[in-house]
Amino acid sequence: MHNDNAMKVPLYVLLVIESTLIAAGVAVHPGCECIVFSKVHGKEKGSFKSPDFPKPYASNIDCLLYTFVGDEDEIVELAFTDFDVHKTADDCISGDYLKVFMHLEGHSVNEYTPWESVLCGGYADIPAVIYSSGSVLVLAFHSGARTANASGFLGTFRFLQKKLFRTDGWKLPSTSCDYEFYSSDHSLLQGKFYSPRFPSSYPTNIRCTYKFQARYKERVRILFEEVALQKGDISCLNRADIVRVFDGSASADPSIRILCNENSGAEILSSGPDLFIEFIANSDRPGRGFKGKYQFQRSDSTAVARNPGELPPSTETEPNVRETRSSCDVAISSDSSRNGSITSPSYPSPYPAKTTCTYEFQGRGKERVQVAFHDFNLYVPNGNSKNCDDADSLGVYIHIDGRIEKIDSFCGAVTPKPVMSNGPRLKLEFQSFHTSRYSRGFKATYAFMENFGIRTGNQLSIYPCAFEFNSNESKEGHFSSPNYPGYYPRDTECHYFFNGNLSEKVRLHFDYFDVEGVLPCDAVSASDYVEFSNYVTKDKKFSRYCGQLKEFDVESDRQYFRVTFRSNDRLDGTGFNATYRFVMGKEGRKKPANVLNSSNWDRGTCLWILLCVISMTKIST
């Protein structure tokens, strides 16, 4: 070892690390051994592991530091390929654990340095990749007195350039994370933007804004490639860390998308030249954050990206609205037509064989595309329409998680239920292999709608999908899931708020319920769900509802009640249909009882009245 001030690292430690980059480190914490992986030694990547891996590590390792040091303009990436550290406590603070220091300003840590996370358990319990926010990252490994026969950990590291995660906007003076993006002859028409410190974890208790301003006859298109906030599938209404997208220049404008938890591939197109994004983080355990792409696009362009995860090109030579790209391909934008009809080739005459036609829809703002079928008759060999693989068919595609996914395929002569997009875009693809004089094809109508197909209640602009039902306006009515009776859209969250008068409560009756999932309707089972609450926050009184259920009733405890529907990006169902009725608080029975005509007295009541009459008679005599 060439450093005179270096701590003498035990020989067995050096033998088990076997890294291409090893140097003795300064003792930065009393009782700790330190292994340093430094860019100074000319290597940009390497590997690291626990002592004796893959054999079980020893007990009573008081403190073993793994210090990774890059250049000032770099960050550190750690990727675990194997992880088995014995877990003795849920918080991983005692026993065997690995502390992670990701936000260091210097090269050293001590007993007072705050760590960002503590890792223990198996590979499924930890993040597979960890990033520093600066040029230094430190791991502190500790094992307890008990031997657990755990093998430890194995991982790789590399140093990345910070500029790879630089936001392409103008940071506002005297702010920590507020940016503005302008479309001009001297600025980029497209670029990237990130949450603070991405890909490392963002700070707590922050508010960041991203303001996009396009030019006249331009729009702003956003693609969130990754959103990694808090883990779980809790409603965004109750999340401390959220991303809100507003269709305008400020948070007072209508909300068109709210992102929380973990997802990717969310695409937004503004209605006008302005778009405003607000990121609020108040949780104690921040996630990695988000990364997104933006593009200033001409409002008369209907170009659609052909590759998943890409923004459409923005050029003046793209096809105009409804201009066909082949004999039967059509692009339809809500700018030119909010509703209309589409048909198969030659409808109502038989369509030709060996034909492929695409119908691509482009909405804006919070618009969703709904397609309702009125006539449907496609040729099926041998009359078997259960499998559409060898039959003439109509496929439905959406953009989700950065990919184009088929969500359904229709064939035969059964008219399909309405379909709805999960965002501003939807694609239908008609494909015929055969022809028949009895197969006339299909006819459907389309509509770009902002109400998600929910036609009752007062829609609120502060949420993308929220409806209010007030007792002063109507004592009873009905409400349903998005696009009912068709399949509800994926990756969608809708709220229904019921506001009664004083001393009132609301009684709900669900006469139809088909929400994909299995009990307990959580993220483990990848379930969609319906949630009830007497508060804006989560109500422990109610468990989640999912699956196919028979008719049931739900009743509030007081005048306010909330119903939340949430779907994920997996499967879907036909949702629910329900009625509501505001009633008086005590079961709606406020009429004074008619003693003489009552037929509901019990024997105790009659005996009490008889004794009173006898007593009164004795007193009078």
TrEMBL record:
Q: Which residues cross the membrane?
A: 12-31
Sequence segments annotated as region (Disordered):
301-349
Give the keywords, sorted.
Disulfide bond, Membrane, Transmembrane, Transmembrane helix
The residue ranges of the CUB domain are 32-160, 177-297, 328-449, 465-583
Q: Per its UniProt entry, which superkingdom is the organism in?
A: Eukaryota
SUPFAM superfamilies, alphabetically? Spermadhesin, CUB domain (SSF49854)
Q: Where is the composition biased (Low complexity)?
A: 327-337
Which Pfam family is one of those matched by this entry? Answer: CUB
Please tell me whether the keyword Transmembrane is annotated for this protein.
yes
Q: Which InterPro entries match?
A: CUB_dom, Non-NMDA_GluR_Accessory, Sperma_CUB_dom_sf
The identity of this protein, by name, is CUB domain-containing protein
Which source organism does the UniProt entry give? Phyllotreta striolata
